[in-house]
Specification:
The complex is a heterodimer of chains A (about 400) and B (about 290). Chain A is an alpha/beta fold. Chain A folds into two domains: about 1-145 and about 285-355, Response regulator (Rossmann fold, 3-Layer(aba) Sandwich); about 150-280 and about 365-399, Response regulator (Rossmann fold, 3-Layer(aba) Sandwich). Helix content of chain A is about 40%, strand content about 20%. Chain A has helices at about 1-20, 40-60, 80-95, 105-120, 155-160, 180-195, 210-220, 230-245, 260-265, 295-305, 310-330, 335-345, and strands at about 25-30, 60-65, 65-75, 100, 125, 140-145, 170-175, 195-205, 225-230, 250-255, 275-280, 285-290, 290-295, 345-350, 350-355, 365-370, 375-380, 385. In chain A, α2 crosses α11. Chain A is built from twelve helices and 18 strands. An eight-stranded mixed β-sheet of chain A has the order 8-7-9-10-11-16-17-18, with helices on both faces. A six-stranded mixed β-sheet of chain A has the order 2-3-1-4-5-6, sandwiched between helices. In chain A, strands 12-13 form a two-stranded antiparallel ribbon. Chain B is built from eleven helices and two strands; from the N terminus they run ααααββααααααα. Chain B has one domain: ABC transporter involved in vitamin B12 uptake, BtuC, CATH 1.10.3470. The radius of gyration of chain B is 19 Å and the shape is globular. With about 290 residues, chain B is mostly helical. Chain B is about 70% helix and about 5% strand. Chain B has a two-stranded antiparallel sheet with strand order 1-2. In chain B, α1 (about 1-30) packs antiparallel against α8. At the A-B interface, α2, β8, α7, α8 and α9 of A face α1, α5 and α10 of B.
Chain lengths: ~400, ~290
Amino acid sequence: MKQILMAAWLAAGVATGSAFAADDVIVLGAAISQSGKYAREGKFYVDAYTIGVDAVNKAGGVKVGGKSRKLDLKLYDDQSDPALAARLCTKLVTSDKVNFLLGPYTSGIAIAASAVAEKYEVPMVEGGGAAGNIFDHGYKYIFGTLANAELYFQPAVELAAKSTPPVRTAALLFSNEAFDKAVAKGTRRWLQQARIELVYDEEYQPANQDFSSILTVIKSKNPDLVLVAGHEENSLAFIRQSQAADVNPRMAAFTVGPPTGDFRKTLGKAAEYVYGITTWLPDMDLPDAVFGSAPKFARQFQDRFGYEPDYHVASGVADVLAYKIAIEKAGTLDPKKVRDALAALDAPTLYGRIKFNPGGQIELPQTLIQIQNGRLVPLYAGGKTLGKALYPTPPWSKR
Amino acid sequence: MLAVQVLVNGVLLGGVYGIMALGMSLIWGVMKIINIAHGALIMLGAYFGFWTFTLLGWDPFLALPVTLAAFFALGYLVQRFLLNLIVRAQLFSTLLVTFGIGVVMENLARLLWSSDLRQVTPRYQGAHLDVAGLTIPHVRLGVFFTAAALSALFLLVIERTRLGRAIRATAQDLRAARLSGIPVAHIYAVTFGLGAALAGAAGALWGTLFPITPTMGGPLTLKAFAVNVLGGLGTMLGPLVGGVVLGVIEAFASTYLGPTYANVFSFGLLVLVLSIRPTGLLGRAP
């Protein structure tokens, strides 16, 4: 029995060994949440990395110094634990000897993982962490493709300030996680600039699903605008409970949730009039060298995984594409040279123009969207009106 | 007025906390097993409610008898064929095994149903009563009264029936119970079955209020444990009192100090109760 096990173990070892030892393969490694509280969003990135790598390989791989190389993925489950993510990234770099790192999901975990990448001087392009404090350590090897958290609610606040009847008061509710705190920090600034009075400004614990007390207070302050930064399940719970508690702001916007398909499916009619934020929509007119265009990518993704990609997915695919373009530019797999090529990158992709600021974060404008008749309608981005908002949101009794 | 509304919120939520904790208390009281899988059972109950609602169109409240029966059967089998093997082992072993059962359930749920958020959305989900300036959602009211009714029914079974007497006898003195001809293995299984049925019902009720995910169980085990320690672990009325007390304290802390203080206060209170009345509000010294 022992011998059989030994043989099986050896066979398995040889099999995985051979897949990665060949020098014509470039291995991208990542720790990503496949279980635990971020399993849901983590899956977006697993699927995104998978389809990205497959598409690059199908399109001829990555050309390095006249030779075409295939991409390979090495993924571990970080169980939604930042400390484990950091350990797994260390393992990826030191014992699996992956060439480059892709990112985990959520800012709190990205902060932990980015420190490892920096320490070993291996580039990490991550599409799942948007808090500014990932990028303000002066790290040289970290690049992020999610837009800065502090900018998330900017279009919502700007449009609210221009609406009639005007928005004069706002309530801001955010989870006590790194990303959402950064969102709140930025939002206070936008509200102040727009001269909207902040009548409620509280943080909550994202594990808490009961918003009844919070909604009671918000209702008593009767704000025109409600802004919520948290996880998708928090957004869902908040909307459903605000219906039951009969809380009726003129406008309610959420950082995460509205752009995803199952958010609309789960909430049904209660999702109508809800505002959301996204940097990316599947029908945006964005050409792409690998997939053809954003809509073509969206169709291919939907066919393969059975759900509509949102901006998390697009951001994850953009990470893989960024590596392809940067490695081809650098013409080598040397981590330092690829890092320099990433820093100098300026390339159009299905996710938008990938160009990192000196801190390593992408600068993409956020688009305010609204759910109208089950569809995502872009309303406002970069100071420009893109569509007509159904404003003010009618009270629940009239919907 | 705000304070009254907050009190109502707290009491209504406390009802679910109570029924969540009741099953755990019973299992501890009779077998001295801390059931770490309790939250996972609640999670399965929530999914049970979701699937019967989505696939069969059953109202989550009206489907409760089926939920109770299904989870009683599940609990009975788990105890009879698994936990009975280790029920006499040290506390640590039972902790470990129930923890393992919880992990298995959570990951099975994730494999079978994915991590997608689920929600039970009956037609009346947004309906509410306006009474004297108070807003009382139908669903919360329904959940509270259902939880109260189930708890009362359960207390009746434990206090007034022959089966209940056998369960209490087993809890009080195992050897005497055996000598009087009580089939202890069966009673243990029935007890765990009742505990699981209550967890399943609590989950089905929870699912009418909050989103359902495979990972929701962990925090709920903790919450149920806190409610029990507060009210008196092993007692039957303790969890209900503890649930309402916890619900009200969370609601007030969240409203007047900020939502992040809810846990500070509820666990602070826990420490306070443990240091002043280690047996809980209604617990008696052993």
